[in-house]
Amino acid sequence: MVEHVLNLTIASLIVAVCFTLGNFFRRRLVAQAAAFHFLPFDFGLGAGLVAGIVFLAGICGFYRPELGWIAIGLGILCLGNPHLWSTGREVWKAHKPDTLVAWLACSLTVVALLFALLAGLPGPVADDALLYHLEIQRQYILQGRIIELPYQIYSYYPQGLEMLYGLGMLMHSDRVPALIHWFFGVFWLTATLNLGVLLRLRTTNRWLVLVLLASTPILWMEMGFAFVDLGWAFFVTLALGAVFLWNEHPHKGWLVVAGLCLGAGYGIKFSNVVFFPLVFLIFILIARQRIKSQSQGLPPIWHSILYLVIPVAFFPLPWLLRNVWFTGNPFFPFIWGIFPTHCPGWDAERTAQNIVFLHNHFGSKVKDWWDYLSLPWRVCVLADGHRLDLYCGETGFFYLGLFPSLLLWKHWSTTCKLLLIMVAGYFAFWAQATQQTRFLLPLAPMVLWSIFVPFETWLQSQPSRFIRLAVTTTGGLILAGTVLWNGCVIAERWQEFETWKLLTKQVTVETVLRDKYEEFQFYEFINANTPPQSRVFLVNVGNRTYHLHRDYFYDTLFEDFTLNQLTIQATSAENLRHLLRQRGLTHLLMAPALSLAPQFTPFAHETDRKRLQEFLNTRCRILKTSEHFVLFEIL
Question: Cα–Cα distances in Å, from 143 out to 133, 137, 170, 319, 537?
Fold first, then answer.
């Protein structure tokens, strides 16, 4: 319990630093709007600034525990910031429930957030956290600086959120990152509430939107993991909110904030590049309407465009410059053909395979017109959190309510129509590119607003009390059923990850990892039974290397690519051993069946397969075996 409280305190202090720095920065940009709007913007801008400061410290070789202690000390001082507490009170005043239904929705939202918080308290067990969100930070901490990791392709992606994770890990706690991600979820919900005011939603409906969002299974799961998708969705919502606030309170500062938030989203995830033209289109449509209504000339609009576009580069620029420094390509590993790119762990052939792999692995399930038409149904109803081919996460069927709401088109406000453009534009991209439900998270509040706003407007225009009662009752039953179904899925995930047993020490994180990942037992064996200077070659074992405390080499996506190439180049088993030892490799952990079994082997020629088999039989010694994996010592 003491450890959990300590980790939550560290995460809270980092959040306090982010808010204080962001509040100082935002007040120099804009002060127009109700005070409750400022809370998520202050945190978001501050988070981007703190991440940038940590990045500079890492580049300069100061990625050490002292940096974490400085952050903690500043966090303690920032708790005395009066703006933090006063803005929080303003948020509560603006959204305080005023009906029984609103109080119930508020209570259920708090329960969902509490259980998500509890899920994040144990150590990391989720795939991507072990693969790169935390593993890259661990490597930086071991070196005391940000270094190039040429064989870890994800290390070239922007890490605007992972920099905050590094602060917690510098305090020797890998549990803080999940809690920081949880805070991003909380502030995202706060931004969603605030935008409900701009959309003219009643307080009760704002809370209903929030409880549906907070209980969405994929969102709830993300809040317990050290992932980055909630931070990305948070900044997308902030950028959209800033544009809407600019429409309500015309001030160039809101456009600057919108641009900064778009850039911060890009500094977390490359996928955010799709939202830039969409948000820009929303801005142009709003600006066009203002020209008509106010007879403004063209120059002010061009000035406004510059205020929006130029700040986009502020937060991602350090990451792009880092990539130029390491590889010559700011967008590495993408658009290889435009820039003269160099990387010792990557080449043009692997880049081409990477693009094909990503498309086939995540975006090739949709084939014909019927697949496209049925995609919303399959995502909302048939999705399965355990299967990548079924979108790897549940959303809930309530989001299908967007289609009935289209029948009320004449009750759609201009703002909701703009939201629909955002939803349709990004969903079309998602259908082609990366079909995992977590990549739809930025759309979730937009869809819910597009359902509630037209129905609320339509109900207010209905003179018949009976119609209002019938529709309200039906909608309430559907909403209650959705929340109940979401709760059942969440309970299933809670049990699946043995969260309660982890919290009560009935099982340990190591036990969960052994049960979930077969390779973890090999990592434990390697850590305990091999010399510290060992270097392990990992082939087709999943590459979740966070708990492997030895130097290692692996192929990020094509996990047998290097072994296959070396085997083909080798003239004999002894020559293959020599090529591996030249790379400093002392051990080989692999799934032999995927390379040697005739039905799986990647080798086009039988002689290559036999050469690898001879090498394993005569130039290696078996140290440990399991159902799928074998650990060899290279002699």
Answer: 17, 10, 12, 19, 20
What is the average per-residue pLDDT within 298-311?
81
Q: Is 332 helix (H, G, I), strand (E, B) or coil?
A: coil
Q: What is the CA radius of gyration of the chain?
A: 26
H helix or E strand, kind and range, residue 209: helix 203-214
CA–CA dist 497, 188 (Å, integer): 25
Those residues whose C-beta lies under 8 Å from the C-beta of residue 68, and which sit 6 or more positions away, are 167, 168, 169, 170, 171
What pLDDT, in 10s, does the model give residues 454-478? 999 998 887 788 888 888 899 889 9
Structure tokens at 403: 């289609």
Distance from C-alpha of 472 to C-alpha of 468, rounded to nearest angstrom: 6
Token pair belonging to 614: 């001879």
Q: Are 78 and 15 in contact (CB under 8 A)?
A: no
Give the angle subtended at the CA of 448 by the CAs of 116 and 242, to the nearest 5°.
Answer: 90
Q: 166: which residues sit within 8 A by CB, 6+ positions away?
A: 54, 58, 63, 137, 140, 141
* Pick from 162, 170, 172: nearest CA to 123: 172
d(CA 130, CA 149): 16
For 290-375, where are the E strands, in sequence order?
Answer: none
Q: Measured between alpha carbons, how far is 159 from 162 in angstroms, rounded to an integer?
A: 5
Condensed to tens digits (0 to 9), the pLDDT of residues 368-400 reads 777 788 889 988 888 887 777 778 888 988 999
The three-class DSSP label of residue 391 is: strand
Gap between the Cα atoms of 559 and 140, Å rounded: 23
Q: Tokens representing 587?
A: 């051990």
Distance of CA 556 to the CA centre of its chain: 19
Question: Two tokens at 27?
Answer: 């007040």
SS (H, E, C) 552-588: EEECCCCCCHHHHHHHHHCCCHHHHHHHHHHCCCCEE
Phi and psi at residue 99, to the nearest 5°: -140, 165
Amino acid occupying residue 51: A
Q: Compute the Cα dihedral for 266, 268, 270, 272 and give only its sign.
A: negative
